[in-house]
Amino acid sequence: FPSHDTAMEEHFGYDGKYASHLFRLVEEARQLLLEGTIVFPLHNAQELLDIKNGLYTYEEITERMNQLNDVFEKWKDMSILPHSPNRKSLTELYFDVIIQYINEQGD
Questions:
Q1: Which residues of 26-57 are buried (b: 16+ CB within 10 A; e: fewer)?
Q2: What pTM value is reported for the model?
Q3: pLDDT value, residue 1
């Protein structure tokens, strides 16, 4: 893992803050792909704090991330999200927001 915190990396072998963000993003992606939403607080919040605080070895972190990387492909295949955006709906939403903004500026 690239290091942003040299002291932490020297002590634990990895940057815990960086690693916890990586695991947080993977959990958020899992929820979004499989459930279509992200629920906070994340169910693995304690694990993320443990990672951030260096309670796992570098080897444990890399092994867990490799496992998640392997299962991530399955999550993509199981995803409830559409494979492409509904451009018509997005365009309508875009113009609705612009018109609402313009109308509010006139008040």
A1: bbebbbebeeeeeeeebeeeebbeebbebebe
A2: 0.73
A3: 47
